[in-house]
Design brief:
There is one protein chain. The protein contains nine helices and two strands; from the N terminus they run H-H-E-H-H-H-H-H-E-H-H. With 308 residues, the chain is mainly alpha-helical.
């Protein structure tokens, strides 16, 4: 069976199977419209969860603030991939790609389109399971910040982790951290002239919670670096709302945030994509291997902070 990374990244032609209520023209879509649609999606995912008899995700919300539209878009890409994976498993839907980020500034309409596509996938599952209950689309007049959309989308992502069969594993986290390492190598090459990787140190007996905490350290450094490069990234507290039982899916969430932030930094600094020698990927990947790669990322970010 393919791992989750293969499933999430697999591509095929886009197939539209369901009819939606007419959407407002793209230029009029605001964050509140994204929020309304995401809430509808969350409610429809909940109906599926009940039919499947899967557990409810009660993980504490990430303590984040000041999310950017790009960071929301990045989470929405992950949302679409997971929704497509569930539709593939339950309804035999074809594999689809979330597509690349816009070349210019991300707008609420870009996020809205991804959430709408994810809702198409979820409705395929509902049809297959015989769910006929309709979730009304609420009306919201009050505005909402990108952070509000970020939080609800990541909540749905966490719930989908408990519905799809190919659950997130340490191998998927390892790959996501590797993306972060590659982005950081390119930024270091741009800033210091050298993107050579720091020495990797393997330590055994590590658990997902160790990876979670070390990635939070990385995010704290990025939060200090970003303003120096003129980039606004979300704030996240490393001292609040840590899950009681950290799973690879929780770690993946943090790694995904880092990749989005580093992608923004690389774009702002005009850093080219580096090709560092990452070394062979272990045949069997455990939290200790993730911790080793995360340690490389932490050292890279420390070097970058010292150089800026």
């Amino acid at each position: 069976m393919k791992n989750l990374a293969d499933c999430l990244l697999a591509t095929t032609a886009l197939v539209a199977c369901l009819t939606f209520a007419p959407l407002a023209p793209a230029q009029t879509i605001e964050n509140k419209d994204v929020y309304v649609l995401a809430n509808q999606l969350a409610d429809e995912v909940e109906l599926i969860r009940e039919v499947m008899g899967r557990p409810y995700d009660d993980s504490p919300r990430l303590p984040v603030s000041e999310a950017s539209e790009f960071e929301v878009f990045f989470q929405a890409q992950t949302l679409f991939r997971k929704a497509n994976q569930l539709a593939y498993e339950i309804a035999g839907a074809p594999r689809q790609s979330a597509g690349p980020a816009p070349t210019g500034d991300v707008q609420p309409a870009d996020v809205h389109a991804l959430v709408a596509s994810a809702l198409e996938q979820i409705r395929l599952v509902s049809i297959e399971l015989g769910i006929s209950e309709e979730v009304p689309l609420e009306v919201r007049d009050a505005g909402i910040s990108p952070t509000g959309n970020f939080l609800i989308i990541i909540d749905i992502n966490r719930q989908l982790n408990l519905l799809i069969s190919t659950t997130i594993r340490s191998a998927d986290v390892y790959e996501e951290v590797s993306f972060a390492v590659v982005y950081t190598a390119g930024i270091l090459a741009r800033v210091t002239g050298s993107g050579e990787l720091p020495e990797a140190v393997f330590e055994g007996h590590k658990r997902p919670s160790d990876n979670y905490r070390q990635l939070l350290e990385c995010i704290e450094i990025v939060n200090r670096i970003a303003p120096k490069a003129g980039v606004s990234v979300l704030g996240i507290s490393s001292r609040r709302n840590l899950p009681d039982d950290v799973e690879p899916g929780h770690v993946y969430d943090i790694a995904n945030i880092l990749v989005a932030d580093l992608a923004m930094l690389a774009k702002e600094l005009d850093a080219e994509r580096a090709r560092p020698a990452l070394g062979p990927t272990p045949k069997h990947i455990f939290p200790s291997h993730v911790y080793e790669r995360t340690g490389v990322l932490l050292k890279q970010l420390q070097q970058l902070e010292a150089a800026l």
